[in-house]
Amino acid sequence: MRFDFTDDQYALRDGAREFFEGECTPEHVRAMWEHETGVSEARWKQLADTGFVGLTIPEEYGGLGLGAVDLVLLLEEAGYAGLPEPLLETAAVVAPVLAAHASEATKDEWLSRLATGEALATVAYDRAGDGRWLAAQGHVVDLVLVLDGEACHLVAAEECTVEPQATLDRGRRVAALSIDTGDATRLGDAEAAAETRDRVAAGAAAVLNGVSRRLLDLTIAHVSEREQFGRPVGSFQAVKHKLAETKLLVESARPATWYAAYAIDEGRIDRARAASVAKAYASDAAAKANHESLQCHGGIGFTWEHDLHLWLKRASALQRAYGSASNHRARLAAALLD
Amino acid sequence: MRFDFTDDQYALRDGAREFFEGECTPEHVRAMWEHETGVSEARWKQLADTGFVGLTIPEEYGGLGLGAVDLVLLLEEAGYAGLPEPLLETAAVVAPVLAAHASEATKDEWLSRLATGEALATVAYDRAGDGRWLAAQGHVVDLVLVLDGEACHLVAAEECTVEPQATLDRGRRVAALSIDTGDATRLGDAEAAAETRDRVAAGAAAVLNGVSRRLLDLTIAHVSEREQFGRPVGSFQAVKHKLAETKLLVESARPATWYAAYAIDEGRIDRARAASVAKAYASDAAAKANHESLQCHGGIGFTWEHDLHLWLKRASALQRAYGSASNHRARLAAALLD
Amino acid sequence: MDLRLTDQQQAFRDEVREWLATNVPAEALPPSSTAEGLEAHRAWERRLYEAGYAAIHWPTAYGGRDADLLTQAIFSEEYARAGAPHRINVLALGLAGPVLIDYGTEDQKRRWLPGILSCDEIWSQGFSEPDAGSDLAALKTTAVREGDELVVNGQKIWTTLGRFADWIFALVRTNRDAPKHQGITFVMIPMDSPGIEVRPIMQINEDPGFSEVFFSDVRVPVDHVVGEIDDGWRIAMATLGYERGTGLGNHVRFSQNVDELIALARAEGADRDPLVRDRIAQRFVETEVFRHHTYRGLTRMASGEGLGPEASLNKLYWSEMETRIFEDGLDLMGASAQLSDEADTPSAVDEWHKRYWYARASRIYAGTSEIQKNIIAERVLGLPKEPRG
Amino acid sequence: MDLRLTDQQQAFRDEVREWLATNVPAEALPPSSTAEGLEAHRAWERRLYEAGYAAIHWPTAYGGRDADLLTQAIFSEEYARAGAPHRINVLALGLAGPVLIDYGTEDQKRRWLPGILSCDEIWSQGFSEPDAGSDLAALKTTAVREGDELVVNGQKIWTTLGRFADWIFALVRTNRDAPKHQGITFVMIPMDSPGIEVRPIMQINEDPGFSEVFFSDVRVPVDHVVGEIDDGWRIAMATLGYERGTGLGNHVRFSQNVDELIALARAEGADRDPLVRDRIAQRFVETEVFRHHTYRGLTRMASGEGLGPEASLNKLYWSEMETRIFEDGLDLMGASAQLSDEADTPSAVDEWHKRYWYARASRIYAGTSEIQKNIIAERVLGLPKEPRG
Fold it and tell me: Where is the Acyl-CoA dehydrogenase/oxidase N-terminal domain positioned along the sequence (chains C, D) (predicted)?
C-alpha cells in the first residue's frame, strides 16, 4: 500500500514545472489572450517534443506508453501555469481512449500525429442549448472525440462546422461545433463512453486543482506583503481562516483526484465514482479558491493588469465544464441510491 | 408608511418581558424539565390574567381583541425566555382561527375558556411517520386544531389518543396524537387552512427569532468574559465575524417576521409568501445561531448545568417543526415557478 | 405598523411613474464609459433636471424639493422599476452637493451646485489610494500651501468617470505631522488643472469605468477647500451619513434580479429542477427579507433615528446577496457560462458576467465585508476590540 | 501508486477479520459509563489482550506486536468494519503507555504497562482545566514538593471515565515562577488517593462520560513523575505525535455513517428527493475524499515523514464533515428530530442526537476548529502571526 508517486513520476512533474516556468509564464498566457488563435503552436510542439503530449500514447506510436497516474501531476502543473493548449483533452482523454478502443487503422491514422504534436484533439462533452457542442480550442484542433450519452464518436474537425466563440477566459477558448454522428463515427462500446467520461472528469479535476493552487499561492503572496492598518493583511485572523479553509479544500481535492487516475489505470470497480468524487470536490474547492482569493486581494484583484483574473476565469470555466459539482453529485446519487 | 410598532405595542412587549424576567427565568425553565407535565398551570393562568393569552381573542369573549402584529413581539419574548407553555399555538394560531372561522356555538364553547387560561390549545401540523400527529404540549391541552392538507379540523383533546413522547427539549414536550377527522370536525374552508398554515409559520418564526436572540446574547456575554491566550475570546476576529454574521441573519429575520404578521392582519395578497419567507429565513438564522453559539462557548456549552442547551434544543426543534426552511422554500418555488 | 402610502405620497408616486413611463428611453443608453454614451446620459440627466427630479433630496433653496426620506424612497423605487438609466453624477448629487450645502460657503454653493444639478459638470471622488485601501486615513496625497494655493502631489485610484469628470473632490494630507486622522483636507480640484494625468483602469470585466488620477504639482486655489484646512476627515466621515438615502431603491433592483434569474431558469429548461428551485426560492427569500429590512430602516431614519453602525448590516447583507444571485445565474448556464456572449439567453451572458463581477466588487468597495463584520461586532454587538499590533 | 496489500498484510487482515467475526459480541455492550457496561467492556478488552490485539503498535518487548503504521491501519479498519466495541482504555494504550515506553524508567514501565495492556487498570487524562481551555499551558493545578512527595492541589476537567479510572496521568505546575510553558510536570496519580474528588459532568446529550476531578492536598510519590520535574510540557507535546496512529480507522466509520444516512433516507421515504440526494452525495464525496486523504497521510507517515502541522487539516476536515453527516440525519427526520426516542427509524433518533452532539464536540476538543485554522494559516501557509495583545 503506497499512496504516492514514484521518483520517475516526480521527475516528470519537475520537468513539466520547469518547462512551464520558462514557456508558460503569466506573460505568455496573457499573450495568448491577444493572439489570433489563442494557442501557441510552438509551445505545443515543444510540449510534444518533451514527450508530455504523447505521454499516454503507446510507444509504438511514438509516445511514452504511460498512464493516467503518470499524467495527473502534469495536468495539475498545466492548471497551475494556466496552459492554454488542450493537454487535458489530448493527452488525458483522446489519446488513451483511442489507444484502448479505436481500430488499428484509426490508431495508425492519428496516434503518431498526436504524439508529435502535429495534430491536436479535443473533447465534445458540453452541449450548448442549441444542440451544438462546446469544445475547448475546437477552432484549432484536428480531431474531436464526442461523448454523446452512452456512445463515443470520433470525428475529424474538418467534418464539423466550427464556430469560434467569444469566451470569458481568452486563454482557453471554446468553439461551438455542429457534428454529424452516426454508426460510421462510433468509437467502441458503452465502456469506451464510460471510460471517456471518467477520464474527462478526473483530468479536469487535476487541472482545476492546479488552478486552485495558483489562486491560493497568488493570494498568500499578496496578503503577506500588502499592509492595512499597519500590519500585513495576512495577519488578520479573518483572512487566515478563509485561506486555511481554502487550503483544506484544495489539498483534500488532490489525493482524491490522484486516486481517480489510479482507478482509471487499474480499471478499479469504483472508477466512475472516484472520477465523479474528484470532479465534484475539485469544482467546489475551485469555487472557494476563486471567492476567497479575489476577496483577499481587494481592489487590485479586479484590475486587468493583475494576473489573478487569468486563473479566476479559468477556474470559473472548468468548474462548470465537464460536469459541474452538482451534475457529478447527481451521478453519484444514482449510483448510491437507485 | 410606518414599519414600526406603536407605543402600546411596545408597552405590551415590555410587560411580557418583565413578566418573563420574573416568572420564566432559566431556573424556571429548567424546573419544567423535571416537572411531571412540563407545563406550569400557575404561569399559564398568570399569563392569561395579564391578557397575553387572550390577546387575539375578541373582547366579547374576554380577550383583548388585538391582532398578529400586537402579538408578534410577545412571541419573540416568549422564545427569548424559553417559555414552555403553548402561547404560540394557543394565542397565535388556534384563538384567531377560531375567532375567524368557527361557528358561534364553537366560539362560545371555547374562546372564553382559552382567554381565561382554563383551556389550552395546540396545533397538529407535523406528522410522525406512522400517521400520528406531533403536537406541542399535546399531553396537557384541551383542544387541538388539525391542519390536514387543504382542510382544518377542530377536535377536543379528549377525543384523541394522546401519547406523550420523550423529547430532546423537555421544556417543550411533544405528544403523538391519533385523531379521527371527518366532516363533523371540519373547521371552515380551504381559506381557514391556508390562514392557519400562515399563522403557524409566522408565529413559529417569531418565537425562533427570540430563541436566536437569546443564543446570541448568551454567547456575547460568554466571549466578552472568557479569556484565552491572555485576551477575551470575543476579541478574536474569527469569533467576531461569526457573531457578526449571526447577528446579520437574526436581525434580518425579525422585520420579515413582523411583516408576515402584518400581512396576516391585513389579509395582504402576499400573506402566504410572507409567512414562508419568515419561517424559512428564521429557521436558517436559528441554525446559524445554534452552530456559532455552541462553538463560541467551547466545552462549557456542552454541560448540562450551563443554560445554553435549553435554547439550543428549542432552536433545533422549532427550526424543523411547522415546516423546515426547505419545506417553505419548496412552497415558495411553487408560487414563483409553477 | 402601516405600510400604506398617504394620499400625497400616492399622488407623487403616480406623477413619477407617469413621467418615467413617458420619458425613459425605450432603448438602453450606450455605456457611459464611452464618449457617445456619456453624452446620452448627460442628456437624460438634463431631462431629469428640467422635470425637477435631479436631486429631490436637496433643499428647495438649492434646486431640490426638500423631499423627505419616504418621498426619496418612492422616487428611487419607481426609478428602479422603470428601468431608467443609471445616474452618472451620483457622487456629486449624493456627496459633493450635500457637503457643499452643509459645509460650503455661499460662494462655493453658488459656484458648484447649479452645475451639479444640471449635470453640466461631472464630478469624481478622490478618496481611495493604492496604498490605503480599506484604511482610508492612510492616504498619502499631499497638499502644501503656497500663498493662496495648495500644491497637490500624489495619486488617487478607483475614481469613477475619471476620464470624463470636470471636477474631483479629494481628500489630501495637509499636515504630515498630525495624527493619522487629522491633517486631512477636503478640496475641490478641476480635472483640467495642469499636472493631472488620468489613466483608465481596465477591469477584469473589461469595463474601463474607473481611473487612476495622478497629481504632479497641481495648483489649487485655497478657496476650493471646503471647511477648514486640516479638518477634512470630519467632513469625509459626514459623507457616510449622506449615503443613507442612496440605497432606497436597491431592493427593487434585487427583486428584478430574481425575476431575471427565474426567466433564465425557464429559458435553460431548469425551472423544474428541484435543486434550482430551492436556490431560486432562497434568493427570493433573501430579497424579500431585504425589502422588509429596508422599510424598517427607512421608518427608523424617517423618525430621526440614525442607522449608525447598523448600516453595516445593510451593506453586508446586500453585497453578499447580490453575489449569490449572479453566481446562481452562472451556475444555471452551466458550461455556457464560460462564453462571453450568447444571444440565446434572456439576459445575455455578457451582462450576467459584468453584473457578477460588479457584485463581487461590492463586497470590497465602501468597506469590505470583513470591515463591516468588524464594525458589527465591535459597535453593534459591543465585543472587545482587537489588541493593536 | 499501489494500493494493494502485500501477501503478509493480506494475511494479517484475514486473520483479524476472522478473529473479529468470531469474537465481536452480537449485541452491543451496555454503555461503558455504567458500572455494568464497564465490566462488559473490561471483559472485551481482556479478550483482545489475550488474542494479542490490545496494543499491536507497542514494541514486542512490552507486549505489543511492533506493528508498523499500515498494519495498524489494517487492524483499525477491520475493527471499525466489524462494529467492534469502542475501546475504553485508549488514553492509556495510546498516550500513557507510549509516554512510559519513551520517557519512563524501567521500574515505571514494569509497574504500569502490564495493567494497561490487560485493562486491569483504567487510566484517565488530566490535562484540561476550566480556566485553560484551548490555552492548555495556562493550567493552574499545582504540585509542591515535600520530601519524596508532591502535594497536588487544583482541578481538572473533561476527564473520561473519571469515576471508574484507577489512574490519572496529569500535567501539574511545579514552578510558578517559570515561563508559562516551563515549570510543568507530567505525573501519574492513583485515583483512590485521599483528597481526590470526582464529580461527573452531565453533558447536554445526557451522557455522564466526563468528570471534573478535584485535588486537595493529594500526596503523590515523586517516583510517579515521568521524566524530570518541570519538564512535562515537552512530554505533553510529544503525546500529540502519538495520536497520529489513532485515527486510522476513522474513514471506515464515516463511510458507515453515510450508509446509515442512506438507510435513514430510505426509511423516511426521502431517497427520491433530489435535495436529499444531493446532500447525501456530497457527504459521500466528503467521506471518499477523506479516505484518500487518510491513505495519502499514511503513506507519508510510513515513509518516515511526519504529518506535522498538516495533522490540523485532517482534524479540521473530519470534525466538520462528521457534524454535517449527523445534521443531515436530523434534517431528514424533520419534525421527528425533536423526539429523543423513536423506534421507527433505522438508527434510533436518540443515537443520532448523541452522535450529533459528539460530532459538534469534536469541533472543540483536541484543538478547536479555529485553532486548527490558525495552525494551518501560520504553519502550513506561512502567513504572518497575529500581533500579541
Answer: 6-118
Report whether D74 contacts D101 (CB < 8 A): no
In terms of residues, how long is chain B? 338
Distance from CA of A167 to the nearest CA of C (A): 4
Count Cβ–Cβ pairs < 8 Å, chain A vs chain C: 109
- The H or E element containing residue C77 is helix C69-81
Q: From the CA of C328, how many Å to the nearest CA of chain D?
A: 16
The conformation of residue C387, written as its DSSP 8-state character, comes to P
Nearest to C363 by CA among C304, C312, C288: C312
Task: Tell me, yes or no, if the two domains D7-87 and D123-230 fold the same way.
Answer: no
pLDDT in tens, D74-88: 999 999 999 999 999
> Shortest Cα distance from A245 to chain B (angstroms)?
12
Kindly report, residue by residue over A6-58, the tens digit of the pLDDT: 999 999 999 999 999 999 999 999 999 999 999 999 999 999 999 999 999 99
Dist CA D150 CA D221 (whole Å)? 6
Give the per-residue pLDDT at C244: 59
How high is the mean pLDDT in each 10-residue block of chain C (389 residues)? 95 98 93 88 96 96 94 95 94 94 96 97 94 87 96 94 90 93 95 96 84 97 96 88 73 96 94 97 98 92 80 92 96 92 58 91 92 95 83
Which residue, chain included where needed, has cell 430602516? C297
Q: How many CB atoms lie within 10 A of CB D14?
A: 11
| Cα separations in angstroms, A248 against A293, A328, B80 | 14, 21, 37
Find, in chain D, the residue whose alpha carbon is nearest to that of A279.
Answer: D285
B161 touches chain D (CB under 8 A): no
**Does domain D123-230 bear CATH number 3.30.70.260?**
no
Question: E strand or H helix at C142, and its extent?
Answer: strand C142-146
Place of cell 462655493: C108
Decide if C174 contacts C183 (C-beta within 8 A). Answer: yes
Instruction: Give CA–CA dist C277/C328, Å, rounded.
Output: 11
Contact residues, B window 217-236, toward C, CB-based 8 Å cutoff: 220, 223-224, 231-232, 234-236
Interface test with D, best of C272, C275, C276, C385 (most D CBs within 10 A): C275
Strands D123-126 and D142-146 turn out to be unpaired
Q: Which helix (H) or strand (E) holds A146?
A: strand A143-148
Q: Is D169 helix (H, G, I), strand (E, B) or coil?
A: strand
CATH numeric code, D247-381: 1.20.140.10
- Rounded CA gap, D123 and D212, in Å? 14
Domain positions in chain C: 7-87, 123-230, 247-381
CATH, domain range D7-87: 1.10.540.10
Mean pLDDT taken over chain B: 97
Give the one of C134, C158, C334 whose C-beta lies nearest to A324's C-beta.
C334
- D372/D313 Cα distance (integer angstroms): 7
Angle at B196 between CA B194 and CA B198, to 5 degrees: 70
> Would you state the CATH architecture of domain B191-337?
Up-down Bundle (1.20)
Contact A111, A89 (CB under 8 A): no
Which chain A residues are within 8 Å of B236, Cβ to Cβ? 237
Active site residue D268: no
Enumerate the H helices of A119-236 as residue ranges: 190-225
- Is the pLDDT reported for residue A319 higher than 80? yes
Q: Is there a contact between A238 and B237 if contact means CB atoms under 8 Å apart?
A: yes
Q: What pLDDT digit, counting tens, does each position of D157-171 carry?
A: 999 877 789 999 999
Point out the catalytic residue in the list C15, C39, C149, C243: C243
Residues B14 and B29: their CA atoms lie apart, in Å, by 20
Residue C129: C-alpha distances to residues A57, A308, D238 (Å): 54, 20, 49
Phi and psi at D185, nearest 5°, equal: -125, 145
